[in-house]
Sequence to fold (243 residues):
Amino acid sequence: MKTNMKGKAVKKLLVVLAAAAVSTAAMAQSTVLSRNAVGYVKVGVTANKSIMCGMPFKSLGGPVLNVGNIFGTNGIPDNTTVYIYDTIKQGYQGETFVDNGPGDPGTGWDPGTNVITSGQGFWIVSPATTNFYFMGEVPDTYSNPTNQFTIKSGPQQVSPPYPTATSITNFPASDNDTLYDFTGTGWNAFTYVDNGPGDPYTGWQDKDGNVTNYYLPPAKGYWYVRNTPGTANWTQVKPYTWP
Fold:
């Protein structure tokens, strides 16, 4: 992990470490005769270790994407918690799974009201080693032909909004913006350097100062720190032809 991170907010956030592997599963076409396709992601979590993920699909349970839509309730270990970073309050909103047994009206996510925006990352912490399966509708030409996520000044959790890898060059970067990617043992930091148009070193640089177009795998979360006042729109066009 680079030691020259800027800002107290970033230092405070990076006390949470992720230590699990995310694997993406191939999209499967629905057998229903419609334009819709259903996809899923398998996320492996080690007991009491944090992992930052993202949801690259649309909700199957309505227009709003929340923890219940992503995880459901089957096979979720009791006291599993999802943490969503609030950029306005600069703190976490938590969702905890309560298992009171099958059929009990109290079984479910508490409070169950926090919304996850497409393109946003979140932490998962489970008391048991397990696999989670995120399932949803594959974003298509009708449901999400273009995705827009607002990048705010300061730190935020981000994740590719489509079930394909996304280049770091797609971010609306300003000088000194930084993206942090957890490797399982530390952090890879990529910093945007703006030396002016045409300069060979203008662009995203890795820790060794090499310009890169690093690709972010889907279903994984990242910290993005915007070091410029104001906001910028991270706009992505659906990167595949079908659906």
Summary: Residues 140-237 form one domain. Confidence is low (pLDDT under 50) at residues 1-34. The radius of gyration is 18 Å. The chain is about 5% helix and 35% strand.
